[in-house]
Amino acid sequence: MADIVLATANARYSHSALGLRWLQANLPQDREQVEILEFVLGDWPESIVEAILSHQPKIVGLGVYIWNVDLMGQVCDLLKAIHPQLPLVLGGPEMICAQNLPAFADQADYVVSGPGERAFADICHSLLPGKPPPADLRLPYSLYSDEDIAHRVLYIESSRGCPFGCEFCLSALDQRVERFAIDAVLAELAVLWQRGARRFKFVDRSLHLADSTKLLNFFLARKEDPHLFVHFELVPEALSDSLLAQLAEFLPGSLQLEVGVQSFDAEVCARIGRRISANKVEQVLGQLLSKTQAHLHADLVAGLPGEGWDSFRAGFDSLHALAPHEIQVGILKRLRGALIDRHSESWQMRYRNVAPYDVMQTSALSFLQLQRLKRFARVFDRVANSGNFQTTAQHLLAGPSAFDAAMTFSDTLFARTGQASGWSLKRLSQELFDYLCQEKTMPAAEAANCLVHDFATAGRTRGLPDEIRRQATVTAEHVLNANSSLLGSADRQARHH
Fold first, then answer.
1. Closest CA to 260 of 298, 286, 292
2. What's the CATH superfamily of 153-365?
3. What is the 3-state secondary structure (H, E, C) of the chain?
4. Cα gap 18→481, rounded to integer Å
5. Any idea where the domains of the chain sit in the sequence?
6. 194 exposed, middle or buried (CB, 10 Å; 0-12, 13-18, 19+)?
7. CA separation for the pair 118, 26 (Å, rounded)
8. Distance between CA 89 and CA 21 in Å, rounded?
């Protein structure tokens, strides 16, 4: 039994719900009175409700996000149908815009818009009188369990908020930044490390803060540990010489940087409040690639107001030429309350009305073009970003335009399979082989050898179609024996290095 149940559905099991842990850490109730329940997409809403009610709670809080809004809506409906008197509190990013809430929010007893630690604690204190909520926010990281440390990504915040004004992001609604006491954060990290945690993902823009030096030094003091992996977001304009020098000290495989580029079109960037030049992006990525051993993940967004096919194509090719390890192509989404909505009429932005609220058409991109770009994003992620086809992808993308090369394969794959996603690794390998041989006129043995090489370096000894293995003149064992530096790693980042 638990007086309070906090529940949400993560995108997959390996993710963890940091928001729920923030809530629990700042409740006036004792820890044993509060239960966190984490589910995943695909779980039945009836099973979720059964698990919640099995604790006989007096209050239920649901975390609602863009990826789980439909599932949480069904959970809300069921809870109120079965137990209408049970106080239900909704919070999370989908609840931020009080003027545009999901329809099921009407059934909730309380909706928390914005940071929820203090508001939820006050609600619980009013419904379950006892000792008052803490005056200052308490950090939640001690609430990560041993199972979390062993099997899940540990999300960390060293600050909250963002000083930048990108209109597609909810952070643009309030550009204030709240810094958490860095010494307290470091103390919590030290405890997690002592408990065996080695993989950390910072969800804030940590590396633009003055305290980033202390934060990086914490991990640099432990850089020799072969299992260390830490992820940071880095805005290009925040890279200083001193920060670059620290990043350069990390060993291969231990550091991942997510660099938000979004667009190379200066007019589009200015229109959405992202004031950074293409020259600065090129300079920063060049420095990071030449002077550090970090795994670089760069983002582009398709469908921004006023950006057409040719502009996006040019931006993609410019970014690809800089050679980050991954280029994540995202499709613009109109998050609830985001400022990007002010461009909807002037640029004829038409969005899906249900999650994930992605743009379907603009005055600069037709519906059919955006459909092709969505398929392109999935194909590029599976072929290039995944690291599963490192050598094969080099041949596939060769030519004057990597965008054109990848788009042609994406269109061909869709025409041949009728699928926009969900290809097995074996099927994708066969399609790549056929395409390289038939469309790129690559000798069959050479194409087959590329795929054998890729499978070997990704740690796979089986799974290639028989036709490819027969055409190859090398085996996986031969590839690894010929080059001892190829470790056969199943780790996505390691495959890129």
1. 298
2. tm_1862 like domain (3.80.30.20)
3. CCCEEEEEEECCCCCCCHHHHHHHHCCCCCHHHEEEEEEECCCCHHHHHHHHHCCCCCEEEEECCCCCHHHHHHHHHHHHHHCCCCCEEEECHHHCCCCCCCHHHHHCCEECCCCCHHHHHHHHHHHCCCCCCCCCCCCCHHHCCHHHHHHCCEEECCEECCCCCCCCCHHHHCCCCEECCHHHHHHHHHHHHHCCCCEEEECCCHHHCCCHHHHHHHHHCCCCCCCCEEEEEECHHHCCHHHHHHHCCCCCCCEEEEEEEECCCHHHHHHCCCCCCHHHHHHHHHHHHHHCCCEEEEEEEECCCCCCHHHHHHHHHHHHHHCCCEEEEEECECCCCCHHHHHCCCCCCEECCCCCCEEEECCCCCHHHHHHHHHHHHHHHHHHHCCCCHHHHHHHCCCCCHHHHHHHHHHHHHHHHCCCCCCCHHHHHHHHHHHHHHCCCCCHHHHHHHHHHHHHHCCCCCCCCHHHHHHCCCCHHHHHHHCCCCCCCCCHHHHCC
4. 44
5. 4-127, 153-365, 386-497
6. exposed
7. 7
8. 16
Segment 5-17 shows an average pLDDT of 96
Place of tokens 């990281």: 141
Are the beta carbons of 246 and 213 closer than 8 angstroms? yes
Q: Is 42 exposed, middle or buried (0-12, 13-18, 19+ CB in 10 A)?
A: exposed
* Number of residues that this document lists for the chain: 497
Name the token pair of 186. Answer: 């470091």
Per CATH, is 4-127 categorized as 3.40.50.280? yes
The two tokens of residue 320 are: 């690809």
Take residue 178 and report the two structure tokens written for it. Answer: 């709240």
Token match 């039945």: residue? 44
CA distances from 369 to 93, 286, 311 (A): 29, 31, 13
Q: Is the pLDDT of residue 480 over 70?
A: no
Distance separating alpha carbons of residues 245 and 356, to the nearest angstrom:
39
Q: Is the pTM of this model over 0.85?
A: yes
CA distance 137 to 24: 11
For tokens 């069959």, what's the residue?
444
Which residues, in sequence order, are CB contacts of 481 under 8 Å at separation 6+? none
Distance between CA atoms of residues 104 and 72, nearest Å: 9
Question: Distance from CA of residue 240 to its chain's centroid?
Answer: 25
Determine the Cα–Cα distance for residues 120 and 133; give it in Å rounded to an integer.
10
> In this predicted model, what pLDDT tens digit does every residue of 23-56 receive, in sequence order?
999 999 998 999 999 999 999 999 999 999 999 9
CA 84 to chain centre: 36
Digit-coded pLDDT (tens) for 140-163? 999 999 999 999 999 999 998 887
